[in-house]
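A quick aside before the break. I want you to see a complete sequence-to-structure record at least once, exactly as it would be stored in a machine-readable document. Don't worry about memorizing anything.
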Amino acid sequence: MSEQVIKNEEDFNEDKGLQFIKKFLLDNMDLSGLYCFGIHHKNKMYSNALSGEVKTKQHTHYYLLAYSIDNKANAVADLSDIIRKKSKGQYTVTLFIHLATTVRQLSPDKSYFFYHAMTKGINLYEHERVPPCIPFKEEPQRNVAYIKAYWRNRNRVSEVFLESQGMVDGMDTEPIQEAMMQVAMENIVLALIDTFLGYRPIHFHLGYLFDICNLFCSLACDIFPRNTEEELKLFELLSKHISKLRSAHLGAMDFLHTELLQRRCRLFQEKATVLIEEEIGRLERLNKAHKQ
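That is the input. The structure line, written in tokens, reads:
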């Protein structure tokens, strides 16, 4: 069971995990700004019936917007992995790393996420001489027509890939079908993130995208949990990028995992569609209310 906690600035100064991550990022990146806009706590209990011993271990996940002065390849995955290993799994992060120069050029509806992450989140660090300097004249407004168009396109891609993979026939086609399902899920998750956060990711690993979804819904955790070895194995099959087919070995394989993924992908698409349509309806009503 995870819980998102909203803290005030004094609480953040006492947060050992956040201070650990802040120091690590400052030591390993050239930053112009760093902001925390989400924290999830999860308590895990370990019990030993023979000894009667009960232990509770807390895991904390942080969501951070980082403005980098330079652009390092694969920084999101590499830094997140090192933080997890250095903290022995106690702290994990979802990093949103961007160049301030790029964000300054975004249209108002595309800068919606950055405005709220910076103004509602906690300012952990700003460079004294080269801060991000994002010129928000006013609160950016969502463009519902753009949201609907993006959702329509992502949904169409997802539908085509899910339908097509179901038509693939043969005893050696599992990697092909799984790669097609990966594309379908990636597009649905991108639509979820855009609809709810107004954010377009620039890092596309499925695990990363699912972690972002956890900010506003539990759908990814409910349908594709990643707790047990079996769940992780299943997710690994789903998250392999389609480019992996360039070197894939095709041979007779076990259909059970593929069939399970097919059912879960369909369920994910159905439930995500409901969430997105409801949120778009809410945004449309808000827009009408503002215009009255």
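Two observations worth writing down. The beta strands are 2-4, 31-48, 53-68, 91-98, 122-126. The first helix runs from residue 9 to 14. We'll return to this after the break.
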